[in-house]
Write a structure and sequence with these properties.
This protein is an alpha+beta fold. Helices cover 42% and strands 16% of the residues. A four-stranded antiparallel sheet has the order 2-3-1-4, with helices on both faces. Helix 1 runs antiparallel to helix 2 and helix 1 packs antiparallel against helix 4.
């Protein structure tokens, strides 16, 4: 049985999010196009969510994201602005901005790392499955995304260094 993720809502909280693709050892399905797409989706979703992306690194078979989630949900004006910035003119009906329950539900979602990771992985998986020469099916990700709450200071800096040095240690960058 799944357990709820630990969340810290008293002040700004830093998280290290990561996930790996399903498959055997040595399976690296992400080339430059896939890495760029996953990176672009993360940055695009950041327009909707009120998370600050500090680092996003996509490797051949996994990703790392270090982000900051605010303690307080965004205000009504921020929710509306984030929604419109992310959705643009896609023809979807807008939520009832005059209904405080709708705004509160969206505001809570916009600072939730689980919702962010779900949207990121689901969007990427749909694109990935759709663009394969042989229409692939099934799970792409090995498991639920993993996250670690980071303390400010050295823990945050160490994690950022680990994430940013990942491609260097793999010999993919200098």
């Amino acid at each position: 049985m799944r357990t709820a993720r630990v969340r810290y809502d008293r002040e700004m909280c830093y998280y290290h999010l990561m996930n790996r693709v399903a498959g055997e050892v040595g399976y690296y399905p992400f080339g430059d196009v896939e890495k760029e797409k996953l990176f672009g989706l993360a940055v695009g979703l950041a327009r909707l969510y009120s998370l600050d992306l500090l680092s996003v690194v996509v490797m051949g078979n996994h990703y790392h994201i270090v982000c900051a989630a605010p303690a307080e949900p965004p205000s009504r004006d921020e929710v509306v602005a984030n929604w419109r910035a992310a959705r643009g003119n896609d023809g979807l009906l807008e939520p009832d901005w005059e209904n405080p329950e709708v705004v509160a539900r969206l505001a809570a979602r916009m600072r939730d790392i689980s919702c962010f990771a779900k949207d990121l992985q689901q969007s990427f998986t749909c694109w990935f499955n759709r663009t394969r020469p042989r229409r692939r099916r099934g799970v792409l990700w090995a498991d639920r995304f993993r996250n670690t709450i980071l303390e400010k200071g050295m823990a945050l800096w160490s994690c950022l260094a680990y994430v940013e040095m990942n491609p260097v240690r793999a010999g993919l960058a200098e």
